[in-house]
Design brief:
By secondary structure, the protein is mainly alpha-helical. The protein contains 8 helices and no strands. Helix content is 83%, strand content 0%. It is elongated, with a radius of gyration of 30 Å.
């Protein structure tokens, strides 16, 4: 019997070899899909490995898959919320953190992440307001520049016409 792919992946992780762990899990995809009892733990581990490899978009997809199979999987929900938070998808991250808090209201780490999320939302709103304010200033500066150029153009035209006109002495 071939070695268990999840066990092989865990051994690779213990040796700090995330790439080999991911390879072991990907080799076993077909086998694991036929055994649902082993699929969710294997996908959870695959998501963890992808996070270690800083492949967040792929990890996010894996964690979504885990939640589709097991909506009460706290690890997948927490990791998905963290990925969403990191890419400023605040509303969706909040939904996942709150769902996790509903599953386990005593998890201090979830409350801590909700507080961080609220701070990030405030910071994001402040930056957006500053950008909007800056855009307004730039628009006004552009308008004033056009007015100045038109004014200088009219003044220059007046001076040229005056210089070209015969003098009346």
């Amino acid at each position: 019997m071939p070695p268990d792919p999840v066990a092989r992946a865990q051994r690779f992780l213990a040796e700090a070899d995330a790439r080999s762990a991911l390879g072991a899990l990907e080799e076993a995809d077909a086998v694991l899909k036929s055994d649902r009892s082993r699929l969710v733990p294997a996908l959870r581990l695959k998501g963890y490995v992808l996070v270690q490899l800083r492949r967040d978009a792929e990890a996010e997809a894996v964690f979504r898959h885990v939640l589709a199979l097991d909506p009460e999987d706290g690890y997948a929900r927490f990791e998905l919320a963290k990925r969403l938070h990191a890419r400023n998808a605040f509303a969706e991250a909040r939904r996942h953190y709150e769902a996790l808090a509903g599953l386990d209201p005593y998890r201090a780490d979830v409350q801590e992440h909700l507080a961080r999320l609220a701070a990030a939302e405030r910071d994001h709103a402040e930056v957006a307001a500053q950008i909007h304010s800056g855009e307004q200033v730039i628009a006004w500066l552009g308008f004033l520049t056009v007015l100045l150029l038109v004014g200088f153009g009219l003044l220059l035209r007046f001076l040229l016409l005056r210089a070209a006109a015969p003098s009346r002495v």
